[in-house]
Amino acid sequence: MRTLVINGVGREVDVEDDTPLLWILRDDLQMTGTKFGCGAGLCGACTVHVDGQAVRSCQTLVGDLAGTEKIETIEGVAGKAAEAVKTAWAEIEVAQCGYCQSGQIMSAAALLAATPKPTDEDITAAMDGNVCRCATYQRIRTAVHRAAEIMEG
Amino acid sequence: MLHYLDKPLEAARGVAASRRGFLKILGGAGAGLIVGAMLPPGSLVGAAKAANGADAVFNPFVEIAPDGVVTVVIKHLDKGQGIATGLATLVAEELDAAIEQVKTRFAPADNARYANLMFGMQGTGGSTSIANSWEQYRTAGAVARAMLIEAAAKAWGVPAAEVTVAAGKLSHASGKSGGFGEFADAAAGLTAPEKPALKSPDQWVYIGKRFPRVDVPNKSSGAPDTYAMDIHQENMLVVVLARPPKWGATVKSVNDAAARAVKGVVDVKSGPFGVAVFADKTWPAMKARDLLEVEWDFAKAETRGTAELEAEYKALLEQPGAIARDDGGIDEALAGAAKVISSSYAFPYLAHAPMEPLDTTILVEDGKATIWTGSQMPTVDQGTAAAILGLKPEQVDVVTRWAGGSFGRRAILDAHYVAEAALVAKAWGKPQPLKVVWTREDDIKGGYYRPMYLHQVKAGIDANGTVVGWKHAIVGQSIFAGTAMESYVVKDGVDDSSVEGVRDTTYGVSKMRVDLHSPKVGVPVLWWRSVGHTHTAYVMETMIDALAREAGKDPVAYRLELIKDDPRKVAVLKLAAEKAGWSDKPAEGRYRGVAVHKSFGTYVAEVAEISMDGGSVKVEKVTCAVDCGIAVNPDNIKAQMEGGIGFGLGAVLRNGITLTEGAVDQANFDTYEPIRISDMPEVEVHILPSAEAPSGVGEPGVPPIGPAVANAIFQATGKHPLKLPFSNGDFV
Fold first, then answer.
1. What tens digit of pLDDT does each residue of B689-719 get?
2. How confident is the model at residue B50 (pLDDT cuts 50, 70, 90)?
3. Is pTM, for the whole model, over 0.90?
4. Which of B31-35, B206-210, B667-671 comes out lowest in average pLDDT?
């Protein structure tokens, strides 16, 4: 058994060292907001925060975690940036199929936490690893700018 | 009381209707086909109760709970195109419901109650969802509204004509008022009105205005149980399969020792599906699948590669094919032309690659089965699974979840991924939920692609630029060949889905001949967002652009001359050109191209503005004009145009599936890389006002973007990309 701190709660899981965090979230903890898209770190659908950094949970093996890291997922991500992003995402109606949007939101929240007033170039750089097959990119960009406005108050 | 419903429904029932419906859809006849506004038989009017035992059922589409919540039953799959919101809008409009009280749920598999009125069976596709539901769902709302009014009038002892409804509230001048929930039970027991009056457009409060997407809150918060991939059942096993690496191959032998040694693996079984790993969770199943050592029998496999197929297709281009159109005298017309140009095009196989990899959960127990998936043809899935499992269709429940994208991938006439899950369940033989999960590699290599096509065109113009002859040959697999629909859709050897957009062009072409070859290849193919228009619009629009140059005319002006008898096309082209500032020169280093195309009854023109750095194309801005009839939800129409443009652009920029000795060369998003935010242009969408019945918007944004960009490249380099995708660089 090992313990992970997820959304502020200690969770015990019994898995092999090579298990990606993605599958612990989805299968062991039934936190299915974090999505499986490619399994290879190419699409960003599985993005979560580990100590505030956006990481691909499909490439984060549990054996490489100390267990003390602060892991945040779409279900529990909090703070000014995350709240603003969620509000903006709903307001702009970004989602189409929506399957990638958990990952998009997590990447955007990490961006805004570090860079509260991102330029278009900042947004492109931070979001380019997140694929959206519905190509909602224009609204993603608009929503990140809108979230920055919301954060300013 | 429902006798008025019987007659129109005949047209929507049975094979004859589905034949007509499919043909007309493929012919692009669009919204004119709606067979009638009707509520199907079995409409459970009469104080019926919903499955939850609390909601009053007004008809198959509207249920109202005691707390006033209106549930709109969605007969179509929502895979991101927004149809759940669209159908909720239609009901809410006529019901005069408040936005906040409207919820949706997906319908069960049921052709009788939930047929697509253009197909004659339940199904989502061909951008028909709003078009076929336009009368039906508004009528469903209007019927429920009239019944609520009557119930309130009775309760209050006032004439029904004096009861008003607005934003979910029934009111009378006496001061009496109440919510829908108060009257729902009594109302649902009343006789449904035969012909409820529908609102006139000036009375609309939601249609053409704003209705928020019903799925946005859940999709913006990672809500549980949204997609089929999120299904979790007690005691469930996850199944990952090793499928044949070439189509037609079968399992010869398996060494599964390493796979079985993976902790969590429960069993490994071979069958018609390949080799299935059963595990307690997804990760061990995936890990073990990759440890299988399978020896395949390739005796009956497709072993041709892309190069061989191209060579065979090229040879076919030179031979007469099935005649898709022949106006007669084509060779004489070309011989007499002032100028003739010819071009040969190559289009690759394309994968749909929806974000949610395919998955199906199935439970077979006690002479029944439950299937959880997100499918565009649930009754086909139901019937197929029933046949495999030895059950009757009504013993198979299909539970539809929101689909994480599709682009056509989930509309499958052979129901292959549900069939596979049923075969796996049959092999398992125990009453245990099984979740069959495809990896991204399984998806990219899994076939059911947009077919590979070659085109060859010779077009001649006279001294004025008038098109006097157009000789066109197309080679590519038939999507319908070998399916249950073949005999209905393939006529005289011509699959309409291979030639739509060419033979029915409204460009004034005086003599046209179109030859089609539909070779048999072992690669399964499927419709891919906008189907034949994905390649035909590209060829037509780039050829017209080349002819404009030969004629010494501006590309927009030239098109307007040729499409003068197609006023809706003229209007979208003019609007897109005007909004894009077509008459002004683009900035230094910028180039513009235009394309206009009608598909699925909807007209779309797009102007692309690009910059180029060597062979690398950056699309800076796309200005789009769309005429889809009445705009039910303008913001969603914009979203579909934005997304369609991005989806189409990603494919033409760099996507292609190639084969080497029958095996797919691509595997994941590195070798089949979708469009990313850094590739996405600014998109500006303008909707033409219209009083025509609405047509679809899911697909029609796609066809013009490839040729619009190609025509901008033509402005920049003097060459059109002819071998797709653009990453081949044949225009540099």
1. 999 999 999 999 999 999 999 999 999 999 9
2. low
3. yes
4. B31-35
What's the pLDDT score for residue B49? 65
Q: Is A127 on the interface with B (CB under 8 A)?
A: yes
> CATH code at B380?
3.30.365.10
| Domain count along chain B | 3
In whole angstroms, give the CA distance from residue B105 to residue B417. 23
Query: Which residues in chain A have their CB less than 8 angstroms from residue B682's CB?
Result: 138
How high is the ipTM of this complex? 0.98
**A56 phi and psi angles, rounded to 5 deg:** -90, 115
Of B238, B263, B440, the CB nearest to A37: B440
Q: What is the DSSP pairing of strand B102-106 with strand B70-74?
A: parallel
Verify whether the Cβ–Cβ distance B221 to A131 is below 8 Å: no
Q: Which residue of B has its CA nearest to A74?
A: B222
Residues of B in contact with A130 (CB under 8 A): 677
Question: What pLDDT digit, counting tens, does each position of B157-167 carry?
Answer: 999 999 999 99
Rounded to 5°, the CA angle B252-B257-B259 comes to 95
Average pLDDT value for residue range B281-299: 98
Token code pair at residue B312: 């065979």
Domain that holds residue B572: 306-350+448-728
**Residues contacting residue B340 through CB under 8 Å, at least 6 positions apart:** B334, B458, B459, B460, B469
For residue B136, give both structure tokens: 């039906």
Render pLDDT for B326-354 as a digit per residue (tens, 0 to 9). 999 999 999 999 999 999 999 999 999 99
CA closest to A129 among chain B residues? B676
3.40.50.300, 2.120.10.30, 3.30.565.10, 1.10.150.120: CATH of A80-152 = 1.10.150.120
Helix (H) / strand (E) element for B460: namely strand B453-461
Partner-chain residue, chosen from A34, A37, A101, that has the shortest CB–CB distance to B220:
A101
A78 at B interface, C-beta within 8 A: no
For residues A67 and A58, the answer to whether their CB atoms sit within 8 Å is: no
Cross-chain Cβ contact B402/A97 below 8 Å:
yes
